[in-house]
Amino acid sequence: MWQDRAACIGSDPELFASGVTSRVLKAKAICADCPVIDQCLTFALDNEDFEVGVYGGLTGDERREIARQVQEFAMS
Question: Where are the domains of the chain?
Fold first, then answer.
């Protein structure tokens, strides 16, 4: 599975579940070098996971914005 190749394996899960800016930045730095960042983001978007936390290098608000843009594009 793609999760087995994620750069975050072995990292503190609190980095990815927190809304604290310093932790979000650390999580995003780990994601930046991840070989499965696209799969992770797709997973979060497909599951409409827009809560606090970093998936695919993006916060919940950033994922929500992408989903909104995709929906607008599909409706145009």
Answer: 2-75
